[in-house]
Malonyl-CoA decarboxylase (Halodurantibacterium flavum), 1808 residues
Amino acid sequence: MFRPFRPDRPAFLAEILDTLTERGRALLGGRTDVPLMAAPDLAQLAEVLLSRRGEAAGVALADSLGRAYAAAARDQRLAFLILLAEKFGPDPARATEAMNAVTHGQAGALDALHAASEPRRQELFRRINQAPGGTQILLQMRVDLLDALPEMPLLRPVNDDFVHLFASWFNRGFLSLRQIDWATPANILEKIIRYEAVHEIRNWDDLRNRLQPPDRRCYAFFHPQLPDEPLIFVEVALTTGTPAAIAPLLDLARQPIGAHEAATAVFYSISNTQRGLAGVSFGNFLIKQVVEVLRAELPQVQVFVTLSPVPGFARWLETMRRDETGQSLPAPLREALTGLDVPGWEKDPDRATAIGAALVPAAAFYFLSARDRRGRVLDPVARFHLGNGARLERLNPLGDLSPNGLRQSHGLMVNYRYALEDIERNHEAFAERGEVVASDPVRRALPAQMTS
Amino acid sequence: MFRPFRPDRPAFLAEILDTLTERGRALLGGRTDVPLMAAPDLAQLAEVLLSRRGEAAGVALADSLGRAYAAAARDQRLAFLILLAEKFGPDPARATEAMNAVTHGQAGALDALHAASEPRRQELFRRINQAPGGTQILLQMRVDLLDALPEMPLLRPVNDDFVHLFASWFNRGFLSLRQIDWATPANILEKIIRYEAVHEIRNWDDLRNRLQPPDRRCYAFFHPQLPDEPLIFVEVALTTGTPAAIAPLLDLARQPIGAHEAATAVFYSISNTQRGLAGVSFGNFLIKQVVEVLRAELPQVQVFVTLSPVPGFARWLETMRRDETGQSLPAPLREALTGLDVPGWEKDPDRATAIGAALVPAAAFYFLSARDRRGRVLDPVARFHLGNGARLERLNPLGDLSPNGLRQSHGLMVNYRYALEDIERNHEAFAERGEVVASDPVRRALPAQMTS
Amino acid sequence: MFRPFRPDRPAFLAEILDTLTERGRALLGGRTDVPLMAAPDLAQLAEVLLSRRGEAAGVALADSLGRAYAAAARDQRLAFLILLAEKFGPDPARATEAMNAVTHGQAGALDALHAASEPRRQELFRRINQAPGGTQILLQMRVDLLDALPEMPLLRPVNDDFVHLFASWFNRGFLSLRQIDWATPANILEKIIRYEAVHEIRNWDDLRNRLQPPDRRCYAFFHPQLPDEPLIFVEVALTTGTPAAIAPLLDLARQPIGAHEAATAVFYSISNTQRGLAGVSFGNFLIKQVVEVLRAELPQVQVFVTLSPVPGFARWLETMRRDETGQSLPAPLREALTGLDVPGWEKDPDRATAIGAALVPAAAFYFLSARDRRGRVLDPVARFHLGNGARLERLNPLGDLSPNGLRQSHGLMVNYRYALEDIERNHEAFAERGEVVASDPVRRALPAQMTS
Amino acid sequence: MFRPFRPDRPAFLAEILDTLTERGRALLGGRTDVPLMAAPDLAQLAEVLLSRRGEAAGVALADSLGRAYAAAARDQRLAFLILLAEKFGPDPARATEAMNAVTHGQAGALDALHAASEPRRQELFRRINQAPGGTQILLQMRVDLLDALPEMPLLRPVNDDFVHLFASWFNRGFLSLRQIDWATPANILEKIIRYEAVHEIRNWDDLRNRLQPPDRRCYAFFHPQLPDEPLIFVEVALTTGTPAAIAPLLDLARQPIGAHEAATAVFYSISNTQRGLAGVSFGNFLIKQVVEVLRAELPQVQVFVTLSPVPGFARWLETMRRDETGQSLPAPLREALTGLDVPGWEKDPDRATAIGAALVPAAAFYFLSARDRRGRVLDPVARFHLGNGARLERLNPLGDLSPNGLRQSHGLMVNYRYALEDIERNHEAFAERGEVVASDPVRRALPAQMTS
């Protein structure tokens, strides 16, 4: 490695850097018993990295700062993030000057305003990114920031800068789609196990059951800088028809079919893995590319649907049953839904059938008519798929009788359908007019007296 | 592919896109006999891509715009670039509002100014980049723009946006170093032949002679999005001492030495390949990483030098000899240099020796004392290496007696030395005080009466 | 695929092949409900494959035979193997002729004898191997044959032909060494779990604990034709000293050390995976190449030892204690060893210490002096390592207190040491004079009154 | 590396091996100024490698022998090959004993005869093959042997052993097909240039013209042990119809078509590269697999033909014209062919047309009726393709007007057609009945008075 500084550097810096060198060695060797750097030192190092001196020391200095941040104590990291908010924003003098030029109608002034008002931390982040492992450090900073953000709104501009840079760096054009299968390296597979957020993968047998059979697929986006880190992945089942329940799909003992016997591809789980990339959206691109990949490989597969959870349904229904929403459930429905208060209702077939029948119109109302204060569809999963241009295809009561499924939606699951020829029209209806595109059966399930 | 638009789109767009589809097909098939799109249509397409509709159509629309640009006639491309300058800058209303907020001292207003004043074309470029091949299209746009820029200063802001985005996307952290050798794919090797800018590679035998012998190396940076395109490459000779002339290094008949017999690594050629990336600097990083790679592989190699051309020397010397600079050459020197006016002087050993001896003090002056109007060192290659922290090590008259070498520098070549422990100090001396760090022999070559 | 036969082929063959085609399709689709081929049909197909017609139909026919064998019922496979023994040996007429030529002293006759007496099944096996997957089919045939061999000595020549061909095809020059680590594909790792024969790998966490820590390694030989099948693998622990017990090495909670802190490499498990390759020996080559790899990577590692089980010890000791061998244990030893009859002795520290002390001289006798009827060292693991040129380094009572360890060797483990400079001398001493090379402590442990 | 021998080895061996070690080092360093080993020493080393000691020293000793052979002088290599023939054949005692057992009707004796009569050099070759680079050494030995064989028939048994082992090791199941294109490493491409045996590749532009256009393909077989050595390769042109001449296919200025516009695949050149593998046939397998690959990728390609030279035609025609064959050409034909004696006839259109018309019936006779003493078709290329089951499709006079084409066949080229559904029938007709399957036009071209 380069020795990054000359002998006559200021004392404080010498100290910092001697420490750093030692820590560098220590970090590389896996030890953690090193003196830790405090936030002001980190900020000082950041200033050096932004200076002309930083240009020359280049990668070595960026590397030092990254390691020092990674090794710093939690409170010092947070203090450093606050310093980023307070001291590494736009240069006020430069911004003012640029604003004056605009005000005076100077030629090209408007074009120059953007560069002149760039927060200094954006350049800092770009320089940190030059070091090996820099991207990971920045993702870690963002995670630290997200932890603190709810309590510290002053960090919001720093957060915005992260989102801006990450959206540019993790541009869809830089991502590559890879299939995850049983020949994928174990260090990647264990991340699939860890990050699966929808239907927990209990162990390696469960994982294999989702990857190895001929009627199962999994695809992920990767970024070249993070070759062992799937950024987002989707699990797909190839089936003969649109499934109404999750348990049969995950059954370890089920009989697989041949891929060429399938007519339908079911996206039954989609999970993001990098919390540091929150706000940088990949799901839309992933689903659409997987549809294209599957169409090319299996032309006879014509139907692309999800089997999705309804995470907001039970909470909303609770408020409806308590009449807290100003809207009311028709009496027979309300009556039928009292069965939900009997623990274990889902195990009694008659009761379950009756409740299932009552959940359907309630769910139709939940999706088609209920809205939050900002006028939005209530369900976050619905917002994602409808925003992508999918259509709400079918309501499946008793679709997920796991404890989690019962808790969040009384077992309700739904299918969203991606019909390529309608995606853009659906998206526009939803995005511009808030219109939920749904199949006829879903529409007809809406009780006449409940159209809001 | 997605059908990107709904049926009721405006007629002109339908037309554009029908054309596009056809062109798409045609482009894929390699034909060019298709109706071409004019600049206003391209701009319209760009507007759609930036709209909400563009979000949904996503990659497909970006792809269409990219292909349409690539297929457009030269004048229409240029007209489109002008539209980018005129219509896709910052939104003035949004910028004004943000400026007002700053002026009124609104909390967070300064932080918001940057985003509010972003030229719309930056987001446009990011979206074009989402399509397969998008990066290549953007690089092509930049090349087109650079062709026109000298005549059309109004394109400068567009150029700035390109540089800004490319610097972020081609961040050193995203580049990977690869060795180029005789087992490298031919489609990459032919680019090495094509892009070598310093000492032309005449044919495949010449190329092999620079790659295959045990005492030759070549390294390049690659970006994951352009896997077959070396962005910059450096050619290295492993030698026993610091060479004073280029011809022996390139001699097809020379006897190679074993890599482990070498004491010196000579960077004898460094070439950028992507004109579209002009202004995004890789050379500094490349040289330093190659030094690290070689030190790890061949610890006995202790000296890292260049053998570099001096492209500005002959032109400068001409002005000196004409007394146009206000400085004058000592009379004996001036006298000795009249020999340069005798064609073929380099083939007469006595004459060549005499002239060589006279060129050395002149060159010392050229590097150490002569400056341009902005106070800068005259030689662009010197500015590059000195700016990287290298030291001017040795002046080699008669180092390159090729027609090109004679034309640009009367055969003079120089060595710059990269001594890792001095790089930062050298860089700072040069960058902050304009000081040229040179070896003692070079300093001593400066005629006493010529210190400026 | 080629249609391998012409329309006017004999009826029986048409039938066989129609069936085959159907089965082919079925096999590819994963179904097994197909009419099965009987042994005489398989033999008929083999005759065709050996005929001139077989030359032309080539790969397709070989493929058909392979699939038909794989799909055949167990008894028909066995019947086919018997036909291979009876009908596909050397051609008696050709062999006799060649023998006559030798007898008459014909020039070159001796050289020709070998080819003339080649069993026809060798060519058959070579032709089967031309088909994709042919190698796997042949390995399966061998497994089937090994199952039957003890009962059917007439299969021995077929077995010999397999060994001969496999030894040639799986020549060490065709094998490649690959490290198995946590980035290895899961479909290979699950084979490591399945085939570990010495210390069972209980689950994926156990596996990771043997692959991922910086002081653990695993290496395997692969054949290009079986890229997902490790043929043999060895698990290695990097330690500071020679370990005396297995449990601490496998402990999930242990603290790893850095690879560069290690002084010793411990081969604690070596397992073959392909029963079909029984008799083709890789272990010797594997250990020696891993030693070379580790020496290159970690020059400070100077000691290469095993930590090995002693599978024959308990059984032998039982016979000794019953005085069945004609040799007798010294009385104090015999007395001390009665403790072995107390269940759970290993959990009582005093008792365990006493028994351990008594096991050492018994073990020294077992290795150094006891021999089987053919005069061989009794322990198969000892024969392997001593035959490779290793030295018996240390006896470790209480080295493996798992149920299996107690059962086979009352917990005894041993270290064999591979000292490269002695390997050849050790090998020769063992191979030519049956001499067991052992360290001084092991020699001294041998009770004076027990030298046989 | 292992030190392969113990200190008390016999003096001569110590000397040999000391030398070897030095040479080993020297070879690795690329020098050749080392003492060379004589044939008896090589043979002694071979004996050691075959001994029990060889087992232990294993790879290291095999490596030494390989290097010593590679470094030996030409005459010593040849002397060593003679020693292989004389001293490393079957063990006469062992063979005699096995023969006696057969004669006495001993059970299993016939099965044992093969192993007992194996030439000792087969095991020697297998052991040499264990060393890195062993395969290459053996291929070199074979080349040396082939050079000497015509003069030294006593080497034939050694040659047979090579063929036997190579046929087993280079079994089609172990080969992999790879496409050669413009992204193939240059070190492989230069071998394509060097080994092209049919239509010389003049330079890298000529090569690119055969690889890069969308209507050109090249495929080769590789063996895992020789990853940079194509064993055999075929060049393919995708065309709309069956071509009658080679020049348009190789024209650097021609306009390519899209691969999906092609209806015909033309195998216009097939070349073996490894002289050491002479007698181990790959061509049949290569053509058939390439047909399968192309059918899968380009289903609209329905016709697979060659455009082949006729290397024996001019020589045969000469003898016919001299009436040396006992058969005679019909007078008008003979008359027309006198035009061949006019140098430059091919440049005179009228003359060329007339001669072309006369060459066709002569060629029909050459292929369909003329036979050599052993009753075989005269043309070696015809024997290859007809033996593979192809059909003689068309005679193309004036197909190759290059000097070489004129010399060997007066410009005649032919197409052989591979129609998969007929391959086996054609092969059988040719192999069993010597019948040349030809198209109707070819048959009709045979002059009535010349049916032999």
Remarks:
- The longest strand of chain A covers residues 264-272.
- DSSP finds 20 helices and eight strands in chain A.
- The first helix of chain A runs from residue 11 to 29.
- Chain A has three domains: 10-169, 173-306, 309-444.
